[in-house]
Design brief:
Blueprint: E1 2-7, H1 13-21, E2 30-36, E3 39-45, E4 59-61, E5 64-72, H2 75-84, H3 94-105, H4 109-112, E6 115-123, E7 128-133, E8 142-146, E9 149-153, H5 167-176, E10 189-191, E11 196-201, E12 206-211, H6 225-242, E13 250-253, H7 258-270, E14 276-282, H8 290-300, E15 303-309, H9 311-315, H10 318-324, H11 334-344, E16 350-352, H12 357-361, H13 365-373, H14 381-387, H15 392-396, H16 401-408, H17 412-421, H18 448-474, E17 479-481, H19 487-494, H20 498-501, H21 509-515, H22 521-524, H23 535-540, H24 544-550, H25 553-556, H26 564-575, H27 582-597
Helix pairs in contact: 2-3, 6-7, 6-19, 6-21, 7-8, 7-21, 11-18, 13-18, 17-18
Pfam family, one: GATase_7
Protein name: asparagine synthase (glutamine-hydrolyzing)
Catalytic activity: L-aspartate + L-glutamine + ATP + H2O = L-asparagine + L-glutamate + AMP + diphosphate + H(+)
Length: 604
């Protein structure tokens, strides 16, 4: 993978070089800077296809110049189509195909390409800029725009000088544990949403953003289950096949879950030689899935590497997390994700993963929450409010703040949104108007489970899962490719009846049935432990001194909109042995560490 940069701010070449050096891990194989008129393009390259320097970037074709991060998986088909139109190619890279494809089709290229990408193409003759981000938001795109002045980059750090903290973004972070697009943690810097492209006309100082892809209203196909399974298996096989194209060593992540097992199994069947698979295990059996993964390899016939780690190995990566994630990011699975990529890098540069399977095929616990409580919203709101302190509470959890919040929630759509942002906010004044950027889930389907899946894809997948994987892999110059994030699979899954994907005690039904063609159900049909760490214990033991250093009264009073007294109660409860608040404590702790890293607070 790579890092992109482009601006019309008159920085010196050395200043831009220093900016790119701050995220050099994204592309250690080449740093390129090119100045054309008022525009400077920069690029950090992680060489994957066509390792020759002829494919370094920024790349030129006629008066077009590109800086691009990603992979176009169907580039060979597009290259053949462009060749038939008379175009000649000097490289074997997908970058050149993307650049010439834009020359031929303009913005129409976006409807043709299948991949993960964030790119900018500068037209030197017209002095215009065309930028785009992939449909699912796998690759990051940050930008600053003010009265014709722009600066764009793959990460926030090179854009962060002399910027102030965005207070609204902090409030959102306190609810979500991440900062969703189009926001960033800093004022004036935004994220281009997935499935959008940006056009800038430099002479007229005009910028427009256009949506080129989105989830659509669900149309359920009336097909037999056996046909759906066959079609999905074929589609998954193609999604894996096109992601196996590489001029560097490639492998596959393998956990004890069915998603990575299925991807690795398909890859093993396609490959002419045994594939490389990688797992990390933990010395604590409560968090260890490595033995299950090793059983999978008997059937996949892969060359497998398991690295057993201690909890301390993950904890030692906390400084790395703060360094490479750029924004406050409180998903604790980022730590084992960093660990997995660190032990994989010595063997391969590209790795397949099972990310995205839970979102489209309904594997997460929050689908259970929606199934369990959706009936409540058939009761009128005024009755629910009256019942909130009565016998009715016994049904959904007497005395529970979450239960009270559920009863007081206006409607099912708002309940679904709170499944993702939480029922018990750390904010003094909670404002969820920002969710209007994600309101599509309320209209694309009438089914509560599909609504939940759609918000999962649009909000959590982009801003949590994809960010976690991108930063953790880029930190060690590894490219991760996720077949389940192929937009064709996302669209196909949404066309299937819920019963094909979700049944009580049989989540991801259709994936399990496909996997059974590779691995016996008795081997893979085991409880999922998740990619987790003993965070609650860390906060109270190993990290206690550091947590208390960061979460001082002086600092807490600087956190925008934080209910300090409520938070201090939760912190004290945790340290006294009540571990239920560790998620909230981790959020504020990570925010404090971020403030320290970026110079917004001096803890000395």
């Amino acid at each position: 993978m790579c890092g992109i940069y482009i601006t019309n701010i008159p920085f010196s070449i050395q200043e831009i070089n220093d900016k790119l050096k701050s995220i050099e891990y994204r592309g250690p194989d080449n740093l390129g800077i090119l100045k054309k008129k008022s525009v400077t393009l920069g690029h950090l390259r992680l060489s994957i296809l066509d390792l020759d320097h002829r494919s370094d970037q920024p790349m030129q074709f006629d008066e077009l110049y590109i800086t691009y991060n990603g992979e176009i998986y169907n580039f060979l088909d597009l290259k053949n189509e462009l060749s038939q139109l008379g175009h000649k190619f000097k490289t074997t890279s997908d970058t050149e195909v993307l650049l010439i494809g834009y020359k031929e089709w303009g913005a129409g290229i976006l409807q043709k390409i299948n991949g993960m990408f964030a790119f900018c193409i500068y037209d030197n003759s017209k002095q215009t800029l065309f930028c785009a981000r992939d449909r699912i938001g796998v690759k990051p795109f940050y930008y600053f725009w003010e009265d014709g002045i722009f600066e764009i980059c793959s990460q926030l750090r090179p854009l962060s000088s002399k910027k102030e903290i965005n207070k609204e973004a902090v409030s959102i972070y306190l609810d979500c544990g991440y900062v969703p697009s189009p926001y960033s943690i800093l004022d004036g810097i935004h994220k281009l949403p997935p499935g959008h492209y940006m056009e800038i006309d430099i002479p007229s100082k005009k910028m427009t953003i256009t949506n080129y892809w989105d989830l659509n209203k669900v149309k359920i196909r009336k097909i037999p289950y056996s046909q759906a399974k066959t079609e999905l298996h074929k589609l998954l096989t193609d999604a894996v096949k096109i992601r196996l194209q590489s001029d560097v060593p490639i492998g596959s992540f393998l956990s004890g879950g069915i998603d990575s097992a299925l991807i690795s199994s398909i890859a093993g069947k396609i490959s002419n030689t045994p594939i490389n698979t990688f797992s990390i295990g933990f010395d604590d059996p409560k968090f260890d899935e490595s033995k299950v993964a090793e059983k999978f390899t008997t059937y996949i016939k892969s060359k497998h590497k398991t690295t057993i780690c201690t909890a301390k190995d993950s904890l030692n990566l906390l400084p790395k997390l703060i360094e490479v994630y750029d924004e406050p990011f409180a998903d604790d699975s980022a730590l084992p994700s960093l660990l997995l990529n660190s032990v994989t890098k010595p063997y391969v540069t590209v790795a397949l993963s099972g990310d995205g399977g839970d979102e489209s095929f309904l594997g997460y616990n929050h689908f259970e929450w929606v199934m369990k409580y959706k009936w409540i919203f058939k009761i009128p709101l005024f009755i629910r409010k009256m019942l909130s302190h009565s016998f009715f509470m016994k049904i959904i959890g007497k005395g529970s703040k979450a239960a009270t919040e559920i009863l007081a929630t206006d409607n099912l759509n708002n309940y679904i949104s709170k499944v993702f942002v939480g029922f018990d906010s750390l904010n003094k004044e909670r404002n969820l108007k920002w969710l209007s950027h994600y309101k599509g889930y309320t209209k694309w389907s009438n089914d509560p489970i599909q609504k939940t899946a759609d918000l999962n894809i649009k909000l959590w997948l982009e801003n949590d899962s994809n960010v976690k994987v991108d930063r953790a892999s880029m930190a060690y110059s590894v490219e991760v490719r996720s077949p389940f994030l192929d937009y064709r699979i996302v669209e196909f899954a949404r066309s299937l009846p819920i019963s094909f994907r979700y049944q009580k005690n049989n989540r991801k039904r259709i994936l399990r049935d496909i996997l059974e063609e590779y691995i016996p159900k008795s081997v893979f049909n085991q409880p999922k432990k998740g990619f987790s760490v003993p965070l609650g214990d860390w906060i109270a033991v190993e990290l206690k001194d550091e947590v208390l250093r960061i979460l001082s009264d002086e600092f807490l009073n600087t956190v925008p909109n934080l209910d300090v007294s409520k938070f201090k109660y939760q912190l004290n409860q945790h340290m006294e042995g009540n571990r239920i608040y560790f998620t909230n404590i981790w959020k504020v702790f990570i925010y404090g560490k971020w403030c320290e890293e970026f110079g917004f607070y001096d803890f000395n």
